[in-house]
Design goal:
The protein is of the alpha/beta class. It has 2 domains: about 5-205, P-loop containing nucleotide triphosphate hydrolases (Rossmann fold); about 215-400, Rossmann fold (3-Layer(aba) Sandwich). The chain is built from 16 helices and 14 strands. The strands form 2 sheets. Strands 3-4-2-5-6-1-7 form a 7-stranded parallel sheet, with helices on both faces. The chain has a 7-stranded parallel sheet with strand order 10-11-9-12-13-8-14, sandwiched between helices. The longest helix has 15 residues, at about 50-65. It is globular, with a radius of gyration of 22 Å. It binds adenosine monophosphate. Adenosine monophosphate (AMP) binds next to helix 3.
Length: about 425
Amino acid sequence: MNFTDLGLGEDLLKAIEEIGYTTPTPIQEKSIPIILMARDLIGLAQTGTGKTASFTLPMIEMLSSGRARSRMPRSLVLAPTRELAAQVGENFDKYGKYHKLSKALLVGGESMGDQIKILEKGVDVLIATPGRLLDLFDRGQILLSDIKVLVIDEADRMLDMGFIPDIEKIISLLPMTRQTLLFSATMPDEIKNLSEKFLSNPKTVSVAPPASPAKTVDHRMMEVSSKSKKTVLKDLIDREDVKNAFVFCNRKKDVDMLGRWLRDKGFSAASLHGDMIQSKRTETLQAFKDGEIVLLVCSDVAARGLDVSGVSHVFNFDVPFNADDYVHRIGRTGRAGLKGKAWSLITEDDEKFVAAIRKLVGEVPTEKAKDEPREEKKESAPRQKSSPSRNSGNTKSSGRPPSRHTREEDVGEDSFNDDNLPAFLRR
Ligand code: AMP
């Protein structure tokens, strides 16, 4: 199937062609015609399947053919984190290049005054995290009475983050007659209930069995003692051909600690977690996307759903407490048909969590680390030479300021074709 068969207009097809997408992904192929028929939809899809475009493209199409009442917002997209909301915003700009549509990105941690100024000019689309949207509504800054399409993205994550009451409140502020699209990687009971309550006769489309890791990720575990975790991680990074990687920790203080330690060891590493100020988070993420940082040490909330193309590796410095998070974490690599590798360091204390992961995803190949605690010698390995995994040592020492955003990071995934699609994407 081609994009031309989906019912999208010329301007969108032109933008898609310029980006370089040749064929729609399965979630796009299945969802777009349903959305264009104004049906409610439940989309069961992980990030990395092209789900953002599956709702953004038809949304732009519908907005371009309708008319706004005195520029009141007609679509609302709710996302669980600021980064995800920003990503939807970027998609909207990229696909809507030839449309004169406007958006407001309403996320916490950014100036409310600036967001209010944009709202005052009138926008077609609101892309928001629930808390900030409600704040602005309570201050009388938003009119929601003309919303015709509501998208709830990453609904299962919204649940994990405790946003369901906020979502219910937001829905109660919207017109009864509207189209509702709900996307989720998994379907826990609470999300099922939410969809039964607020969606009307929805069509369900699904592209991956819930909580299964993408087939393109080679994921493995390494048995290790708690005290040698850091050195084993370093050895793994040395041994693997790491282009760029997410390194996950369970606690924010460990995110900071490990980021510092890796930098000390000469790696190009930075930390990302929810307690950092927004400007620093945005700058760090951009530097990682631009390839100026090789290792992004992060927490789950900071990394969920981040669309960074062509990440070669994921390292779980800590095993996640929740088996679903394991799938989400390793899903940061092996995206859109590209191959990826994931390593998890497991200690005796993790037995319970590892068992839950194995129950969810099946057996995971496991090695035992040469686990003797070693003297950490400053000069233990040449830091700059052989490995492509690091640049001149410290990220900051590259001398280049993190460049502003370009869309180049999508180039790596433009080679999306049937041959390199994972099985679940080929249907
Ligand atoms: P998402 O699941 O929305 O996070 O998208 C994952 C990645 O797939 C993003 O980098 C998109 O730019 C890319 N993508 C989306 N649709 C297509 C397509 N039809 N062909 C190739 N890449 C795509």
